[in-house]
Amino acid sequence: MSNQSKNYIFIFIGALILYLVSTGVSYALFTNFGAKRESVSIDEKVDEIVGDENFQVDESLPKTEACPLNGKLYTKPERAIWEKRRPLAVMLENSVDARPQSGISKADIIYEAVAEGGITRFMGLFYCGVAEKTEFAPVRSARTYFVDWVSEYDALYNHVGGAGVCSDPTVDERAKALCQIDRYGIKDMDQFGISFPSCYRNPDRLGRPVATEHQMVCVSNNLFDIAKDRNWTNVDEDGVTWDKNFTSWKFEDEADPGDRGTLDQIDLYFWNGYTDFDVTWEYDAVQNVYKRVNGGQPHKDLEIDQQLTAKNVVIQFSEETSGIDEHKHLLYDTIGSDDALIFQNGEVIDGTWSKQSRTARTRFFDENGKEIQFVRGEIWIEIVPSGNKVTY
Questions:
Q1: Integer Cα distance of 152 and 86 in angstroms
Q2: How far apart are CA 324 and CA 142, in angstroms?
Q3: Does domain 65-244 have CATH number 3.50.90.10?
Q4: For residue range 19-75, what is the model confidence (pLDDT) as tens digits?
Q5: 93 contacts: CB under 8 Å, gap ≥ 6
Q6: d(CA 215, CA 199)
Q7: Distances (CA, A) of 31 to 17, 40, 42, 62
Q8: Superfamily the domain 250-385 falls into
Q9: Domain segments of the chain: what residues?
Q10: 89: helix, coil or strand?
């Protein structure tokens, strides 16, 4: 073989080696850099995600992020949204003419108590479940005991007016919700200071005539934008992040099918004879959820036409004081302690609740004094007058 032929062979082999090495290096760089880019892509787009009012949850993504309010697992993009906000508490009415409500199925936690005349009212805590734009309706007025529960979360408080400004002589001092909102520095999102399109009246929401007081709609993204303009995001006016002062309840995974109980129905009432507001929770052992029946009818969210469910149902017994002024306002004990029943996994825990101050968390304990671990998912808290019978 000539020297020239040998040179060609060496050149070919060298070129082949160089090609293989460069290809391997390129593949390694592409793989590692690509993986890194993919892992941070969500973080890089946080501001874009948070600002997108048309954001939709990608159900194909893994749910790995625990909600601080109820322990339920969500996707990373959803967490990117809630971490830029603080919880939003919304007052929703439950009069027969106002049913069904809109947006209530998106609440992480719901409180229910009588507002007046045996008619119950809801306060939904919306934080992790409202990554997608949500309309709430019908929004109604504030009550003093709900103000105490809002204070546990340092939440935004959306309502339409309420009982008692400070100067109103016709309202008992203890029931002056509007006065307390101002005095306590609640992050107030009273609809009277919020205009269209953030809050507006929709007389056609239910497809039938309803009175004006049943028509108020407020929009989640708009409310959070207003809060941002007021410097009420996850960082408050003092530069303190919301989660720094918030203490979560304890959570656990749901029981395996073979470990679930057989208590299949809970029946409760708020006032005797006001059957339109009686509640039944029907336990579905397969899905491990409690399905809500309101006044004898499946309780649905108008926007999705699905029955409301909860992973945990809490009966919080509280001393009720009625007719304290000419407006017949009510009071419920919110600070102190009393009995409680906690339903989860088809079983009941006979326990107690305790709240040390207005801003302290309400905590729930079993009969041995051990703090309750809630099953990850929706928590519904029924404030029932002490002495009322709950059957199950």
A1: 12
A2: 17
A3: yes
A4: 444 444 344 433 443 444 444 455 555 566 766 888 999 999 999 999 999 999 999
A5: 101, 115, 119, 121, 122, 138, 139, 140, 213, 214
A6: 10
A7: 21, 14, 18, 22
A8: YerB-like (3.50.90.10)
A9: 65-244, 250-385
A10: strand
| Per-residue pLDDT tens digits for 369-388 | 999 999 999 999 999 999 99
Contact 288, 345 (CB under 8 A): yes
Give dist(CA 95, CA 91) in Å, integer. 13
Specify the pTM. Answer: 0.88
* DSSP string over 136-148: EBSB--B-HHHHH
Cα dist from 357 to 187, 291, 360, whole Å? 18, 32, 5
Helix (H) and strand (E) counts in the chain: 6, 26
Q: Which two tokens stand for residue 19?
A: 């090609």
CA distance 23 to 17: 10
| Identical fold, 65-244 and 250-385 | yes
Q: Are strands 187-190 and 279-284 parallel, antiparallel or unpaired?
A: unpaired
Do 357 and 337 touch, CB atoms closer than 8 A?
A: no
Q: Give CA–CA dist 163/115, Å, rounded.
A: 10
Structure tokens of 111? 């409180």
Indicate the SS3 state at residue 95.
coil
Q: How many residues does the chain have?
A: 392
- The secondary structure element, H or E, covering residue 42 is helix 3-44
